[in-house]
Design brief:
The protein is α+β, with helices and mostly antiparallel strands and about 475 residues long. It has helices spanning about 5-25, 110-115, 120-130, 135-140, 205-210, 215-225, 435-455, 460-475; strands at about 30-35, 40-45, 55-60, 60-65, 90, 100-105, 145-150, 155-165, 170-175, 180-185, 190-200, 240-250, 250-265, 270-275, 285, 305-310, 310-315, 325, 330, 340, 345-355, 355-365, 370-380, 385-390, 395, 405-415, 415-420. It has four domains: about 5-90, no CATH class; about 100-185, Nuclear Transport Factor 2, Chain: A (Roll), CATH 3.10.450; about 185-295 and about 435-475, Roll (Nuclear Transport Factor 2, Chain: A); about 305-420, Glucose Permease (Domain IIA). Strands 16, 19, 20, 21, 22, 23, 24, 25, 26 and 27 form a ten-stranded antiparallel β-sheet that branches. It is extended, with a radius of gyration of 32 Å. The structure holds zinc ion (ZN). Zinc ion binds next to loops.
């Protein structure tokens, strides 16, 4: 427990403190100073209405008087003072000479052992670990996370920064005899990178050769996957041009992000995809004419090993050995492989239905119904009336009902008529239309210009990043 000692010093400082407050013509209700055992001034406060100024008291003590509405934490490396609070401005001053200790958490470390190694006592550990909302983060720290301790020459912990990752910092500051904490999040800077290449073997091999990160290549394949089958359709000589975002913090790249605009030329046919956020706030990729890059349905709602039974209106049933139409496709897949909703819609049935076993039925726009049967289990929350999006997991593959092996029986019905899920013409996803199309086309022109600039000039990437930011400013 900190003790108030050295009453003589306290009185001298109190006097100076009140003098300054008076000089600044601040209405003072009361003022107080607090020292620790070794006479470090650790807390000074007064109650007032409003002030904003900075003054030097002595060479080693500086007062920073903040506007009372500010709730700021100042770094205490060079600044000797500081903070705030509610309607009472609050100061915690300390002398120069505070040292910063940077610790990288190792396997066997915990808050207690680290504090111990820095000469901080267990009462500090206890106070830190009890800080509301954030204290528990310190007691569950993981290897390779970082801690920055600011310790006064007399061994007093002034501030602790807990840095669990490159974007977040939890700052524990002295507050009276305790600590208070808050989360500070850094927003990374976005830069654009351009990469182009020609296919000589496969998209994945050749994109790697020209330095396109795997994550971005996968996104490219996903975006263009509706138009180009990257296993069957890709030809030697296909070209790709990709402009994507990278995240930077303090000049170092931390992440590859999304594609902004990309062109793929498949067998001479050019398709360009542009990322666009529509008026409803949903972001997707569109062709230059406003059509979605996606279809309203994915062709196969499960990753399957083989098709064990095709759509066949006059099939010999494997169990009953009679002619019974097979109204769907059977996709053989391992037990519990996730089954996805093939399009947006509303669940109209989820449960047990004799031959089907566990089954989910989804109603989609344009009077389309899809059916997913023989599931081992139905996903939590999937029940009648539930809205689902394309790609949502609705169930897991099993062999419930009349089934000989684990597979998904999948049906696609249009106006009540069964269609072959493998060949049925899938409707387009909602395009951009109406009044929005005009502003979209304006956006397209700018984005194509941006892509063209990169194709013809590999100059300063930052220049284009600036153009891109300006463009976003104009459009927002
Ligand atoms: Zn079947």
């Amino acid at each position: 427990m900190d003790k108030i000692t050295n009453f003589k010093m306290v009185n001298v400082f109190s006097f100076i403190f009140i003098l300054i407050i008076s000089f600044l013509n601040i209405k003072v209700v009361s003022a107080s100073l607090l020292y620790n055992e070794t006479s470090d001034l650790i807390d000074a406060r007064y109650h007032q209405t409003c002030c904003k100024s900075e003054i030097t008291l002595f060479s080693d003590i500086k007062l920073n008087l903040c506007n009372h509405s500010v709730n700021k934490f100042y770094g205490i490396s060079s600044v000797t003072c500081l903070i705030r609070q509610d309607h009472n401005v609050f100061f915690a001053l300390h002398r120069d000479g505070t040292h910063k200790h940077i610790i990288t958490v190792k396997n066997d470390d915990n808050l207690s052992s680290i504090c111990n190694s820095l000469g901080l006592n267990q009462s500090v550990v206890l106070k830190l670990s009890k800080v509301k909302k954030f204290g528990s983060k310190l007691t569950s720290m993981k290897p390779n996370e970082k801690l920055e301790f600011w310790i006064s020459p007399s061994g007093y912990l002034m501030q602790l920064d807990y840095i669990p990752n490159r974007l977040d910092r939890i700052r524990f500051c002295r507050h009276k005899l305790d600590f208070k904490a808050r989360l500070e999040t850094i927003s990374p800077t976005i830069k654009l990178r351009f990469i182009q290449g020609v296919v000589t073997e496969s998209l994945f091999v050749d994109s790697k050769k020209v330095g396109l990160p795997t994550k971005v290549t996968s996104q490219l394949a996903n975006i263009f996957g509706w138009d180009v089958d990257f296993v069957q359709d890709v030809r030697v000589g296909d070209e790709f041009y990709v402009l994507y975002e990278e995240e930077y913090i303090h000049g170092s790249k931390i992440n590859d992000k999304d594609i902004v605009v990309a062109t793929y030329i498949n067998k001479g046919k050019q398709i360009t995809a542009i990322r666009y956020t529509n008026l409803n706030g949903s972001t997707s990729y569109y062709k230059t004419d406003g059509k979605s890059m996606k279809k309203a349905f994915i062709r196969t709602p499960v990753e399957f090993t083989r098709i064990s039974s095709k759509f066949n209106p006059s099939r010999l049933h494997p169990i009953f050995k009679t002619i019974q139409p097979h109204h769907g496709v059977d996709y053989a897949a391992p037990l519990n492989t996730p089954i996805k909703a093939s399009g947006d819609g509303v669940v109209i049935f989820a449960g047990w239905m004799n031959g089907y076993g566990n089954v989910v039925k989804i109603q989609h726009p344009k009077n389309i119904v899809t059916v997913y049967a023989h599931a081992n289990s139905i996903h939590t929350g999937i029940k009648k009336g539930k809205r689902v999006k394309q790609g949502d997991i609705i169930a897991k593959v099993g062999k419930t009902g009349w089934a000989t092996g684990t597979h998904l029986h999948y049906e696609f019905q249009v106006n009540g008529k069964h269609c072959n899920p493998e060949t049925v013409k899938l409707p387009e996803a909602t395009p951009i239309k109406g009044n929005e199309l005009k502003s979209f086309k304006h956006f397209v022109v700018k984005m194509l210009h941006l892509l063209e600039n990169h194709k013809t000039c590999f100059a300063d990437n930052n220049l284009f990043s600036d153009q891109y930011h300006n463009l976003n400013l104009i459009l927002n």
